[in-house]
Specification:
The protein is of the alpha/beta class and 206 residues long. The chain is built from nine helices and seven strands, in the order βαβαβαβααβααβαβα. 47% of the residues lie in helices and 17% in strands. A four-stranded parallel β-sheet has the order 2-1-3-4, sandwiched between helices. Strands 5-6-7 form a three-stranded parallel β-sheet. Helix 6 runs parallel beside helix 8.
């Protein structure tokens, strides 16, 4: 009989493809719980749902729990770190989901030193498509949505899971009129590294 994994990941679903691929490849042995990325339109919705999921997971799961969210996913004042500390769980060392894909520890800032690029992994395209639809339903016009990208030179697509053609097609369908400047072949090593580092850190805590 296989032993139940001693680690459970509570992650934003924006990284679902990468994490599931790590499990499929045998690089990661963990229980997986995903919180919908679509809550990210509203910090309070993210917090409420992450809290609910953590509380449920900590009741049901007796092993270590690792939170796969960035430092900025609840705001600019380390709110996500504070939440992780409140629940006694280890959080990955990453600024946001893009930082996870790049390997964490603030590599995101190095990659966009002039703050005029928008990095897009597979999970982010669906998020923006959903955000656009939600905003239009609430009466926000197309021009206001497009204005969200006004300070951006263009997109850098992160090819993590080898599905760049699908990403291009989804971006075209989304109607977001921002040019693709570059495709970075990053694979899933960055996500693997930040998660395994957090698991190692969690395993040292008694």
């Amino acid at each position: 009989m296989n032993k139940k994994p001693k680690i459970c990941l509570v992650s934003c679903s924006v990284l679902k493809e990468e994490i599931q691929q790590l499990v499929k490849q045998g690089d990661l042995d963990a229980e997986l719980v995903f919180v919908s990325k679509f809550f990210h339109i509203d910090y309070s919705a993210v917090e409420n749902n992450v809290r609910k999921v953590l509380e449920q997971t900590l009741k049901k799961f007796k092993g270590k729990v690792v939170l796969v969210y960035g430092d900025l996913c609840l705001g600019q004042d380390d709110e996500m770190k504070k939440l992780a500390h409140e629940y006694g769980v280890v959080k990955v060392d990453a600024v946001n989901c893009i930082d996870c894909q790049l390997g964490g520890k603030g590599k995101f800032y190095e990659a966009d030193s002039e703050h005029n690029l928008m990095f897009m992994g597979p999970g982010m395209i669906g998020f923006f498509k959903h955000a656009k639809e939600a905003m239009l339903k609430e009466g926000v016009d197309e021009a206001a949505f497009e204005n969200m990208f006004s300070g951006i030179k263009g997109f850098v697509l992160l090819n993590t899971c080898g599905n760049i053609d699908r990403m291009r097609k989804e971006l075209e369908k989304s109607g977001i009129n921002v040019p693709i400047l570059e495709i970075k072949e990053v694979g899933i090593e960055g996500v693997k590294r930040v998660i395994l580092d957090a698991i190692e850190c969690a395993s040292r805590i008694k």
